[in-house]
Amino acid sequence: MQEDKVRAKKHLGQHFLRDLNIAKKIATSLTGHGGYSQVLEIGPGMGVLTQFLIQEKKYHIKAIDIDKESIDYLHKHFAVPQDDILYGDFLKIDVPSLFEGKFAVIGNFPYNISSQIFFTILEHRDIIPESVGMIQKEVAERIAAKHGNKTYGILSVLLQAFYDIEYLFTVHEHVFQPAPKVKSAVIRLTRNSRTFMPCREEDFFKTVKAGFNNRRKTLRNALKTLNLADVSMDHPIFDKRAEQLSVEDFVQLTCLIFGKQ
Predict the structure, then answer these.
(1) What CATH class does 2-191 carry?
(2) What is the pTM of this model?
(3) Euclidean distance between CA atoms 259 and 239, whole angstroms
(4) What is the topology classification, in CATH, of domain 201-258?
């Protein structure tokens, strides 16, 4: 246990899972949606999740960790090819180079970079059809929230535009070493059928972010940063606040502002 504590301190934002039943439950939450046969684990630590992923013989597993000691530990204790245990930062690597073709992403994601991980997954959604991640419960609830909910926000809309989100289960503090001060949760992202938007994607992202940056204001006021001098504000959608709009409403709003592509 002491080794776990020392190692956990070196993992900024990382809390190591001790409960093998939960680890197995996370590993088996992958469905294979999208026809992938390759899986990348982010932040394997000492391999509590890795061991169950390896047992899933249908997948080619790779793991990436920013902690050299964890990499050395995995090389020593797991009978997998050296090249499949990667030392590096998922947020900084060339993601498409990790595998040939599609792959899933899974892991006990460090709390402090979980949102960045999901934005990276979103950027590479054409090759990442599924992701299962354990993250802070509050963030999981935000990602899975529907419009009209106070926790619904930028990450909710942008991810739900391209993925179906499932809040799978809650994980309590005592199963980690060291124990975090908050509860965790496991969510699953499954690529949906959206392959085209009638508006430009960059305009959609810009509109969503502007709307939620002033979420207490109506969109008529919240979107002033977009310089809408030439846009008619007669449509009733501008009387709403960002949290009241569904993904499709935001697509419509973007088309009203920037036009269709």
Answers:
(1) alpha beta
(2) 0.91
(3) 19
(4) Helicase, Ruva Protein; domain 3 (1.10.8)
